[in-house]
């Protein structure tokens, strides 16, 4: 017993002695450096703040056979200019190769918490326009030519959502290298096409906002609050997986619709409604509808499963009413087949 007490006491003493050291070392060390991430995949999804680094080196001089496509094409093009029209076949081949290289677009897909927007600062970039290099900031995500938020859903036209840039080394004076972008929702994309050598460092930060509208779902199980805050606006929640959806805390539509204190799942006739459905791609404008909901209820509603590549929940508001709903999203699997309300064609 004595031994145990002694041990206990010495631990306490040691613990007390250890404290000042810990505290001092904590004070001595500078704050941790910014998180640094190396981009390795062509489609790289990022949800953490920090610096994202991409670097593509020039091939070493020993392996001259593996020259980058862009350079070869340019040489071919120059050759053809000299012997104008002589070798049309090579021209066609070079054009095809150039088209193939152009397809090689990669992206840093940034996603934050639902109530955030994304800020990207280009700390550095060396992407030569001349060799076919190009970068673009996209306010949202783009996949296979489809956008989130959908083109019709965004308050900015597409031209204003995509900002392209590269280094024009022929231009003098050289313009400032630093660039700064902000998205309108929790999703943003930095696209890049670097056929020859090149590099960039993009700093990613997230900022809280108070009235989120379009939200890209990050978690495979979470509750999302959707509301119009009295505005005339359409907001979409998109999950990039088949999902089971249920609703709680629902208030959508005018007094008459809400009076019954129940959820109405057949509200196509009403201007203010919640649409639940799915689509094959990112564009929620092309979604198939499973149900259109309005009314009022505090009870959590039944679950329904949407078996599509993308699950969408859209809140349509005219601005006449204060609409709100809590959407419970969970990834759907085979066990949810009996609660399926929509199966998209594969
Ligand atoms: C919301 O969507 C509906 C139906 O697609 C459309 O008629 C309406 O103009 C949209 N409202 C806003 C504010 O974009």
TrEMBL record:
Keywords for the protein's UniProt record, in alphabetical order:
Disulfide bond, Glycoprotein, Secreted, Signal
Signal peptide as annotated in the record: 1-18
MF term (GO), any: corticotropin-releasing hormone binding
Q: What Pfam families does the database record attribute to this sequence? A: CRF-BP_C, CRF-BP_N
Q: What is its main location?
A: secreted
Residues in Corticotropin-releasing factor binding protein N-terminal domain copies? 99-202
Matching InterPro entries: CRF-bd, CRF-BP_C, CRF-BP_N
Q: Which domain of life is it from?
A: Eukaryota
Residue span(s) of domain Corticotropin-releasing factor binding protein C-terminal: 216-337
Tagged with keyword Lipid metabolism = no
Q: Name one GO biological process term.
A: hormone-mediated signaling pathway
Annotated GO CC locations: extracellular space
- Subcellular localization, as worded in the UniProt entry: Secreted
Name used for this protein in its record: Corticotropin-releasing factor-binding protein
**Gene field:** LOC115621411
């Amino acid at each position: 017993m004595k031994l145990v007490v002694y041990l206990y006491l010495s631990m306490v003493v040691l613990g007390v002695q250890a404290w000042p050291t810990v505290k001092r070392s904590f004070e001595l060390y500078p704050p941790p450096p910014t998180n640094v991430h190396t981009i390795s995949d062509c489609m790289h999804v990022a949800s953490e703040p920090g610096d994202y680094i991409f670097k593509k080196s020039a091939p070493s001089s020993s392996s001259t056979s593996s020259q980058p496509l862009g350079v070869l094409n340019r040489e071919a093009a120059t050759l053809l200019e000299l012997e104008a029209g002589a070798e049309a076949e090579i021209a066609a081949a070079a054009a095809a190769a150039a088209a193939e290289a152009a397809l090689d677009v990669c992206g840093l897909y940034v996603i934050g918490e639902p109530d955030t927007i994304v800020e990207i600062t280009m700390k550095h970039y060396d992407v030569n326009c001349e060799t076919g290099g190009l970068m673009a900031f996209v306010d949202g995500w783009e996949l296979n030519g489809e956008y989130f938020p959908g083109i019709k859903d965004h308050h900015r036209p597409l031209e204003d959502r995509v900002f392209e840039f590269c280094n024009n080394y022929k231009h003098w004076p050289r313009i400032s290298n630093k660039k700064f972008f902000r998205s309108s929702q929790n999703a943003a994309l930095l696209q890049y096409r670097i056929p020859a050598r090149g590099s960039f460092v993009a700093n990613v930060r997230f900022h809280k906002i108070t009235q989120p509208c379009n939200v890209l779902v990050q978690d495979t199980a979470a509750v999302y609050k959707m509301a119009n805050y009295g505005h005339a606006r359409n907001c979409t929640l998109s999950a990039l997986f088949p999902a089971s959806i249920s609703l709680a805390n629902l208030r959508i539509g005018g007094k008459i619709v809400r009076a019954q204190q129940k959820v109405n799942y057949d509200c196509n006739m009403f201007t203010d409604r919640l649409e639940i459905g799915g689509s094959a791609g990112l564009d929620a404008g092309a979604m198939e509808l499973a149900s259109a909901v309005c009314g009022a209820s505090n009870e959590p509603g039944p679950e329904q499963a949407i078996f599509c590549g993308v699950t969408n929940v859209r809140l349509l508001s005219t601005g006449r009413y204060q609409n709100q709903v809590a959407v419970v999203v969970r990834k759907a699997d085979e066990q949810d087949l009996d609660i399926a309300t929509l199966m998209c064609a594969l």
